[in-house]
Amino acid sequence: MNPQQIKIMLELQDGMNTKVNADWKSQGYEWYRAIWVECAELLDHYGWKWWKKQSPDTEQVALELIDIWHFGLSILLQSGAKPELIIAQIQNDLIIKTEEKDFRLDLEKFVAATLGDRQFHIGLFGRLMAGIDMSFDQLYRGYVGKNVLNFFRQDHGYKDGSYRKHWHDGREDNEHLVEAVLSLDTTKAEFKDELYAALKSRYSK
Q1: N or C end of the chain: which has fewer CB within 10 A?
Q2: A Pfam family this protein belongs to (predicted)?
């Protein structure tokens, strides 16, 4: 787990939150509430209904976990702790391992802890990643990709409606994002900037 990658994610999260509200850290936003609502959506993607046939949609579960990570980082940043302390905390607590065979039970433990103290439980989140065989690199790629795309949309007219979600070849921006991410080296410090440039190049064709 590269501390530089954690630093980049924290900077991106702060940047996105600041874009919404420059004074976001003092607003008392209920990030914990966003987390448990996402967990409910995640459970629907995983499946829990015993009265009908369901198979876990692990791709959608992974996307929901990435969304939860956004809110979790916001809780950590809102605490006022210095970035280096948050980085050390994530390195120490994010252990991607679980002995629980039922993913849903790990999810319920995570939700209960979140509602109990309204904090982000990094260790319990790591168990959820393990439950769907999600690596830190997958979390990082997915997280940075979504953030950079959000910034790109905002910079290219998303707010005023001039942004084109379908690009020159008729494919959606999300599809271009996936291809662009796979073509780049995620371990480089410049990854987010190179990804933005790749999206810009594809969009302008």
Answers
A1: C
A2: dUTPase_2
